[in-house]
Amino acid sequence: MALISRHGGWALTGLVAAVLVAPLASHAEQRMWPQVAAMHPMDGLTADEIRSASDILRAAGKFGDTTRVVSMALEECPKDEVRAWRPGQPFARRAVATLLADGHLYEARIDLAARGLTGWEEIRDHQAALTIDELISAGDLPKQDPRWVAAMAKRGITDFSHVLCLPLTTGPVTDPELKGRRLLNVPCVDTTGAGNNLWGKPIENLFAQVDLNAKTVPSVTDLGVVPPPASTPSHAYADSGEYRKPPKPVEISAPQGSNVKVESGQVRWDNWSFHVRLEPRVGAVLSLIRYDDHGTLRDIVYEMSASEMFVPYMDPALSWAFRAYMDIGEYGFGVLASELRPGEDCPANAHFLDLTISDTKGMPVVSKGAVCIFERPTGDPIWRHSELLNNTAEVRPNNELVVRMAPVVGNYDYLVDYVFDRAGNIDVRLGAYGIDATKGVASRTLSDPTAAQDTAYGTLVDERLLAVNHDHYMTFRIDMDVDGAANRLVEDRFSVRRLDEGQRKSLWQVDTSPVETEGPITMPLNAAQFRVESTAKTNKQGYRTSYQLMPGHSDVSLLAKDDPIQLRAGFSAYTLWASAYAKDEKYAAGVYPNENAEVDGLPKWTAAKRPIEDRDLVLWYTVGFRHVPRAEDWPVMPGLWHGFRLRPFNFFDRNPALDVPPVVDAKDAK
User: Fold this and answer.
1) H/E segment holding residue 620
2) Is 48 a catalytic residue?
3) Which residue among 325, 412, 418, 581 is the active-site one?
4) What is the CB neighbour count within 10 angstroms for residue 348?
5) Among this protein's residues, is 327 annotated catalytic?
6) pTM for this one?
7) What is the distance between the alpha carbons of residues 376 and 400, in angstroms, rounded to a whole number?
8) What is d(CA 251, CA 566) in angstroms, rounded to the nearest whole number?
9) How confident is the model over 23-38, as pLDDT tens digits?
10) Catalytic position from the list 43, 222, 270, 327
11) In this structure, how many other beta carbons lie within 10 angstroms of the beta carbon of residue 582?
C-alpha cells in the first residue's frame, strides 16, 4: 500500500507491485498494464528495473535502513542513440535516483545492464522534493507541541480528531539559522462535518513550522483568533439543489473500433506517431513526435513535458506570505497524478496508462489510470470552402487525439492535455480545476465594517471565508527537432512601412531575423511571430521548413525582481525562453527548488549566452494566468483552460489535411 493525494486529503489507495496488478473488468481491454521489460529506450522504469536499481544501491552500501528514495527515474540515452534506434535493436538502460539518508541528500546514477553504480554524489546546500511519508508525518508534529495545543485551546479546539494539518513548503529559506533544515509550514483546517470539501473551515492565523529531519517544531506562529466560518461546504450532487433535469446521454464512441494504436508507450493515430512515458516528477513525457508525410516520417519535437509550476499567493500576512509553491519541483506532478475515470475524466473507450514509480523504500508501486489517450470529433471542420459562383462545396471534419493527465496538488486539480489534429497542429492545454485556497476572515458580507480590510487580497466566497488572489505559471520544456536537430529560432517582426505615393498611406511587412543566442525573448509576442526552422531542409517553394509557436495565455509575473520568491522563479518573468540543448537542463527552476533562495534554472543556464543558430535548441513556454477568485468558484471551481499551439509554417508543401476523407452519408454509401 502507498499514500496518494486524493482531492485535498491524504488517503490510502491500493498501489501494489506491477506484477500483481489485476485488470478492472469495466475497461480491461483499454488498460495498459506495467511491463516487466522495457520495449523502447524512452520507456519509463519498469517494476523489475526499480527493484534492480534498489538492489544495486543496497549491494553498493548506499541504501541503509534509514535511507529513503525521493525519486527514481529513467536516465535517458543520448539523443543520437535514441534517434538511430529501431525496433528489435538493443539499447542501454540507466536510472537516476535521489535519496535522503540521515539528513543528507544524494544523487545516484545506475547502469541497470551492468548492475553497477556509475555515479554517487552528495548534494550540499539543497533540499529535495517532499516524499509522501514526510507529508503525512508533518501533520502530526504540531499536535505534540504545547505552544500549538495552547493556541488551539484559545480557539476552543481541544479534540484534534477532526483537525487536518496541511504540509506546505516554506518557499525560499533566507534565515541563516534555518539554513540546512528540512522544513515545512503546517497550517490546519477543521474538518468537522466536512464531506468532500476539506477547505471550508481554515483555522486561521495559526501555523507551525516543522523540521522533518529532527522531527521537531522550531516555531509556532499565532496572529490572533479569527471566528471560523459557520457553514460546511459541499459539492456533492445531493447538496446541489438538483434543479436541472438529467440530460440525454451525449457520448464519444467508435462503433467500428478505435483509430488509436497504443503498444507499450508507442502511440500511432492518423499521420502522427510518438512515445509516451510517465515520470514521478513531471508526469507525462511525450517524445519522438513525428508526422507521416506521404511515407516519410518527419521529426517535429524530440521531447515535450511540463517542467515547473509556480503558484504565488498575494497576501502579505505571515500565515500566507510564504505560499509560493513549486508544484512540480517540490511535490511532483507524476507522484500526485490522480486516477482518471472512464466516462467522466475521459471517454469510456480511451486507452489508459498506469504510472509505475518507486516508493520510499525502493519498491515499485502503481498508480492506475494516470494517463488516458483518446480521439474525439471536434464538431468543427478542419477546412472548408463553399463557392457561390459555381455552387460547389467541400468540407472536411476534424478529429483530435488527446493525451491527458490530472495531477492533484492539494486543493487544485490540474488537467494537462496534449492535443494533435489532422492538419499538423499540436495544442498544449492546461485546465485549472479543484477548490480555491481559502482564508478565514471576520467579514460575512461586503457590508461589514471589516470588509475593506478583509478583501484587500481576495474575494469573499462565503461568510467569513476569503479566496486569496494568486497566479499560476506553468512552464513547458519543448525540445524541438524540426526535420532534425539542426535548427534555429527566428522572429518574424511586423514592421510598418510608410507609403508616400498612391492610395494607401501605410502597410506592414515581415522582417525575419534569427535569434543568435539563448535567453528570454524580450520582444512582445504580439509584435512578432516566432518559429523554429530547419537549417538543412526546405519545402517545395524553397522556404526553410519550420514550426511556429503561437502564444496563448502569456501573463508574466508582476512581482519585484528582488522578491525572494521571485528570485527562484525567474523563468516566470518571461513567456518564452530559448536555450541550447543540454541533457541535464530540464527543470525551469533548477533541479532542487525546495527552500532554494538562489537564482537557478533557466536564468542561470542562459546567462552563458550560448549560440543557438544552426544548433539543437529547446523552447520553454510559460502558460501564465492570474486568478482573481469569484463567487462562482465556490465550493468547487468550473474548469478554466489555458494553453498555446505549435503550428506547421512552410513545413509542408501544401495543406496537409487535403487528403482527409469527406464524411460519407449512410444512404450514399449503400
Assistant:
1) strand 617-627
2) no
3) 412
4) 15
5) yes
6) 0.92
7) 5
8) 45
9) 222 333 333 444 568 9
10) 327
11) 12
